[in-house]
């Protein structure tokens, strides 16, 4: 069912409320919430208020610093990637990053 839910979000490309998912798939509320909670926990969906949606992702070449952090170079502004989140990327690799809510400095990160 989790794959079916993910495919549904990818096809529609828009946020959905729990009630809509219940009607569409004929799930019980407790069951649907468990699936959605799991997808949010895994980072495959996000929830804001009562809406569930696919996380925003960006793609670009990465610049790495010897201290472990990096930046995904984007046309509008580079995206900071903290140490430990660069995984095994090499300089100039094309990477995909998930946009995270702004940190204490007010800037988004990935």
From TrEMBL:
Protein keywords: Exonuclease, Hydrolase, Nuclease
Write down the Pfam families for this protein, in alphabetical order: HTH_IclR, OB_RNB
Q: Name one GO biological process term.
A: regulation of DNA-templated transcription
Query: Which terms does the record give in the GO molecular function aspect?
Result: DNA binding; exonuclease activity
InterPro entries associated with the record:
NA-bd_OB-fold, RNase_B_OB_dom, Tscrpt_reg_IclR_N, WH_DNA-bd_sf
The question of whether Hydrolase is a record keyword is answered with yes
Does Zinc show up as a keyword for this record? Answer: no
| Residues annotated as domain HTH iclR-type | 5-48
Domain Ribonuclease B N-terminal OB per the UniProt entry, residue ranges: 60-106
The name this protein goes by in its record:
Ribonuclease R
Organism for this UniProt entry: Thermus tengchongensis
Highest classification ranks of the organism: Bacteria, Thermotogati, Deinococcota, Deinococci, Thermales
């Amino acid at each position: 069912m989790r794959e079916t839910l993910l495919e549904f979000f990818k096809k529609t490309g828009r946020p959905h409320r729990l009630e809509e998912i219940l009607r569409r798939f004929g799930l019980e509320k407790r069951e649907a919430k468990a699936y959605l909670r799991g997808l949010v926990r895994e980072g495959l969906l996000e929830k804001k208020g009562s809406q569930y949606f696919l996380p925003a992702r960006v793609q670009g070449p990465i610049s790495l610093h010897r201290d472990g952090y990096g930046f995904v170079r984007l046309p509008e502004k580079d995206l900071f990637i903290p140490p430990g989140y660069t995984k095994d990327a090499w300089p100039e690799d094309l990477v995909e990053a998930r946009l995270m809510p702004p940190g204490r400095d007010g800037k988004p990160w990935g």
